[in-house]
Design a protein that fits this description.
The protein is of the alpha+beta class and about 325 residues long. It is about 30% helix and about 25% strand. It is built from 10 helices and 15 strands.
Length: about 325
């Protein structure tokens, strides 16, 4: 027997549990109802004060997370009014990358950014979690829509590392290093991770969009035993208390520069990357799916790949999507 109150609760739950848009069909399949009943439930929720966006085609719904009003107010003083219109500041979200990918699929414009005070399902490379406690870090995702082939985007993560390092230096006056390929470090410990995700058009084989996720540990003073030897925060490494909003503004400014420079000013980013990279000139452990090998990291190639020399004299060039690299006796 159809129960409208239960339908409203079920629709609210699935919208609350999902970052971004949920299709009407998936809601129907989950609860054995039809699209008319879903639409009625959405209207009832909106009448109760919930902010729900409907996609352009009208077949998907998105529950808008609560706005971080303080961050939005502070950020509005630091970047242009025209720019703040394409920045969403949230109190909490599962993953800023997941949300922004959904927004991108539903028309979010080039340069759109999502910032959250907290992530409950933060993600890093190779399926790892990224711990994202409330107001202890900066969790930001940024949308790019370059017209390019997927192979040409391999270096976006490296460009982003340069941009993020520049922003951190501008705010706190301490220069982080880059551990190839996507982590920023201070005193040998990770303080920032970068995750880039790409969507391609199956017909044109062109990039539809790139979502760049940046997570920066700003004020954390405690890390679990499993990562305390390799992870840290800006505060722990510098003693400086910095503004999350000020760092967010600098990150956005640097990513806007990157978006304008891509891909024509590669040399500028490549030179900075080589200068800041702490991986080269070291013996490293090369971690792949099936084995770990010792190698010497000789240099960063022109395509931002890492040139390795193995103990037997053999050489290889590797990309971030293929392997991970760790130092001996420490993270770098």
């Amino acid at each position: 027997m159809f129960n409208f109150d239960n339908t409203v609760k079920n629709v609210l739950k699935i919208l609350s549990d999902t970052d971004g848009y949920v299709t009407c069909d998936s809601i129907c399949q989950s609860f054995g109802i039809d699209c008319g009943e879903v639409a009625d439930a959405v209207r009832a929720l909106m009448a109760d004060g919930y902010s729900i966006h409907t996609s352009v085609r009208g077949n998907s719904f998105c529950l808008t997370p609560d706005t971080d009003s303080r961050m939005l107010t502070e950020l509005s003083r630091l970047i242009l009014p025209s720019r703040i219109k394409t920045v969403s500041c949230l109190k909490t979200v599962g993953s800023t990358n997941t949300l922004l990918k959904s927004l991108a699929e539903n028309g979010a414009e080039d340069g759109f950014a999502v910032i959250s005070s907290e992530q409950t399902k933060g993600r890093g490379r190779r399926g790892k979690n990224f711990i994202s406690p409330d107001e202890k870090g900066l969790y930001l995702s940024f949308l790019m829509r370059p017209y390019t082939a997927p192979a040409d985007t391999a270096s976006v993560t490296a460009w982003t590392a340069v941009a993020a390092a520049s922003a951190i230096y501008a705010v706190c006056g301490v220069q982080p290093g880059i551990k190839w390929v996507n982590d920023l470090v201070m005193n040998g410990k990770k303080i920032c991770g970068i995750l880039t995700e790409i969507s391609t058009d199956s017909e044109t084989l062109q990039v539809q969009y790139i979502v760049i996720g940046i997570g920066i540990n700003i004020a954390e003073t405690y890390f679990p035993d499993s990562i305390s030897s390799v992870a840290s925060s800006i505060f722990l490494e510098t003693g400086k208390k910095i503004s999350r909003a000020e760092l967010a503004a600098e990150i956005i400014k640097e990513l806007d520069k990157l978006r304008s420079a891509w891909p024509y000013k590669k040399d500028m980013y490549l030179n900075s990357y080589r200068e800041l990279c702490v991986t080269t000139g070291r013996q490293v452990c090369v971690i792949s799916d099936d084995e770990n090998k010792t190698a010497y990291a000789e240099k960063i190639n022109d395509d931002f790949s890492l040139h390795l020399r193995y103990p037997d004299g053999s050489l290889s060039d590797v990309t971030g999507g293929e392997i991970a690299v760790r130092g001996f006796g420490g993270y770098v």
